[in-house]
Design goal:
This protein is mainly α. The protein folds into two domains: 46 residues; 134 residues, no CATH class. Helix content is 70%, strand content 2%. The protein has nine helices and two strands. The protein has a two-stranded antiparallel ribbon. α1 runs antiparallel to α2. It is globular and about 65 Å long. 27% of the residues are buried. The mean pLDDT is 88.
């Protein structure tokens, strides 16, 4: 359902891009299609929310994960859609690897190259974690402290955003394993 929602939003944007035509009949047709797509988007949102609300395990995961500063309902929906039951991961690094945010070392002998992310995991999940990563860099105390530390070490802005995305996944793992809501003071103490 989340992928269908992505497709519908993409179709809506495509139709909105076509609105600059001069023929009124064509505009009327495009607006009609946009109206229909908007109704489908609303229905799909409702179906996703109902699906999570009807499943006690998903509802419990939602209640814990959305306590993390930077992660909201839409991000949780994407996490569940792309990774399934988040509690099946026995290590936070496996969760990060499933998202393709783990570093890929480029070394050969004495040569130490750049360390880009592996991108082996879900591209949709990485795209879905980008904005939450930016929000966390502004509002999550522990991630702000990490940002300051990385910036002082000379890391590039994109590296800092990827680190924030990884850290969010570590927090998701931690709250699900502990069964406790996110506590920024505890995260800062580590």
């Amino acid at each position: 359902m989340v992928r269908r929602l992505d497709d519908l939003q993409e179709m809506e944007q495509m139709e909105r891009n076509r609105l600059d035509v001069s023929d009124e009949k064509v505009k009327e047709s495009i607006n009609s299609v946009i109206g229909h797509i908007e109704k489908e988007i609303v229905e799909t949102h409702k179906a996703i929310k109902k699906h999570i609300d009807d499943d006690p395990d998903m509802r419990q995961m939602r209640d814990l994960v959305v306590t993390i500063d930077g992660i909201g309902e839409k991000t949780l929906e994407r996490l569940l859609a792309e990774l399934g039951d988040l509690r099946k991961y026995d290590d936070p690094r496996k969760l990060v690897a499933a998202a393709g945010l783990n570093p890929e070392l480029q070394e050969s002998g004495l040569l130490k190259g750049r360390s880009p992310i592996s991108k082996i995991g879900s591209a949709r999940l990485r795209a879905g974690l980008y904005m939450p990563g930016l929000v966390a860099l502004q509002h999550n105390k522990a991630i702000i402290a990490m940002k300051d530390r990385l910036k002082a070490n000379g890391k590039a802005p994109k590296q800092i955003i990827c680190a924030a995305m990884r850290k969010l996944l570590h927090y998701v793992y931690a709250v699900l394993k502990s069964g406790q809501p996110y506590d920024p003071e505890f995260a800062l103490a580590r």
